[in-house]
Amino acid sequence: MTKGVIILMLIFIFSNGFSQEAGKQKVAAIDSIVSKYIYEYAIVGLSIGIVYNNDDFTKQYGTTDLVNNYPVSDNTMFNVASISKLFTATAIMQLVEAGKLNLDDKLCDVLPDFKMKDKRYRDIKISHLLTHSSGLMWDNKLKESPDDTTSISLCIQNLSNKKLNFSPGEEMSHRTYSNAAYDLLGMVIEKISGKRFDEYIEQNILQPVKMYRSTYYYEDIDASYLAIPQIVAGNSKSIKRLNTLGIDNKRKPVLNERPVNLKSYEVYGEDYEHNPSGNLISSAYELNLWMHYNLRMYSDTAFIGNLNRHTLSEMWTMQREIPGKKTSIGWGWWIYNDDELGKSVFHVGNNPGFCCILMMYPEQKFGITVLCNGSYAQKAIWNSLTKEIATLFIGS
Question: In a 10 Å sphere around its CB, with 0-12 CB exposed, 13-18 middle and 19+ buried, how is residue 212 labelled?
Answer without folding.
Answer: exposed
